[in-house]
Amino acid sequence: GAAELGPYRHYMQKEIFEQPKAIADTLDGVPGISPELFGDGAYRVFKEIDRVLILACGTSYYAGSTARYWLESVAGIPTTVEIASEYRYRDSVPDPRTLVVTISQSGETADTLAALKHARSLGMKHTLTICNVATSAMVRECELAYVTRAGVEIGVASTKAFTTQLVGLYLLTLALAQVKGRLTDEQEAEELKALRHLPMALQAVLALEPQVIAWSEDFSRKENALFLGRGLHYPIALEGALKLKEISYIHAEAYPAGELKHGPLALVTEQMPVVTVAPNDALLEKLKSNMQEVRARAGQLYVFADADTHIASEPGVHVIRMPEHYGRLSPILHVVPLQLLAYHVACARGTDVDKPRNLAKSVTVE
Ligand code: G6P
């Protein structure tokens, strides 16, 4: 009801603004990094496995896609991520030394549950879930679990569940790294410090809302949009495009920026908004040249640029400046303005933000 919404217009907006608290709650009671965060016996399981297979749907799949970068670079564990409805029906080559990780807000998504059972039937007995509902089928079915504490999410388009899933997946990455001898005590302390500072860092990002609102009117008249990111932020571009199409009904596609020249560049005209996720990371110079390719075709860039990227506003280049680069945890910050953009564009178009047409919060049938 209206009382629950407080100052917010929709549950989605409220849930976007609840993210600092959702993350703080998810980290609450995490004294340090250890396999036991995922349940009894996790140490033995983590010792035994040497691969990770992530299975999920929708936004949860993009959380998994982000985690793949972490698991490979921090924990050094070969990781594949697969859409649950694909995995369950294809012939694949099982490896018993795999940790099967499902990600699900609800813990009841039919395809994800079926994919889990399929993996198990192929002989992969080690299973772990990152899930927001402690009493769900997914938590019951899996050997190990990390229950995020996003609280109840009402908006069909997932927001706080996504960022808390990322936190859970980062903890999993660190715990696996520790067991594999790739995390010193000093590194652990630094990582924990960065995690615990996330709620504050998120507050600073949420304060950018007025700037996002200023873009939304213009944006709401578009019928297409491209989202670009690279590396760790490519899944964030995918998630931004998903949010926009789900609730504003603007057709949106995301591409890894280096792949622009292999197709989507043909779509770029002065009519095409190109949302760019621009963290100040090792790929920045590459990304800048991709932005040039867009500008050369008169595409309109809407850039979320970290401080110190030296990306400045100019005709055709709209810039919202993000706080300092947040290292590996940067995707957790960069997704937030994309959520806000989708939300305010949808509001400008007058759609039913919390209940977009044809979509359900939890898909418990195939
Ligand atoms: C539906 C929801 C999405 C969600 C997806 C997976 O499509 O609308 O927001 O990402 O299901 O749901 P799960 O509960 O498994 O994360």
Helix proportion range: 40-55%
> How would a crystallographer describe the biggest sheet?
5 strands, parallel
Mean pLDDT: 97
Principal-axis shape? globular
- Adjacency order of strands in the biggest sheet: 2-1-3-4-5
Bound molecules: 6-O-phosphono-alpha-D-glucopyranose
Low-confidence stretches: none
Query: What is the terminal-to-terminal distance?
Result: 31 Å
Structural class: alpha/beta
Radius of gyration: 20 Å
Tally of strands: 10
* Count of alpha/pi helices: 14
Strand content: 15-25%
Keywords: Aminotransferase, Cytoplasm, Glutamine amidotransferase, Repeat, Transferase
Subunit structure: Homodimer.
Subcellular location: Cytoplasm
Function: Catalyzes the first step in hexosamine metabolism, converting fructose-6P into glucosamine-6P using glutamine as a nitrogen source.
What does this structure look like?
The protein has 366 residues and is of the alpha/beta class. It contains 14 helices and ten strands. The protein has helices at 2-5, 11-17, 19-27, 42-48, 58-75, 84-87, 110-121, 137-141, 160-179, 185-206, 209-219, 234-248, 284-296, 330-349, and strands at residues 51-56, 79-83, 98-104, 126-131, 144-147, 224-229, 251-256, 273-278, 300-306, 317-322. Strands 2-1-3-4-5 form a five-stranded parallel beta sheet, sandwiched between helices. Strands 7-6-8-9-10 form a five-stranded parallel beta sheet, with helices on both faces. Strand 4, helix 8 and strand 5 (144-147) form a beta-alpha-beta unit. Helix 3 packs antiparallel against helix 10, helix 11 (209-219) crosses helix 14 and helix 12 (234-248) runs parallel beside helix 14. The longest helix is centred in the middle third of the chain and has 22 residues, at 185-206. It starts with a helix and ends in a 17-residue tail after the last helix. 6-O-phosphono-alpha-D-glucopyranose binds at residues 57-60, 104-106, 109, 112, 156-158, 359, 361-363.
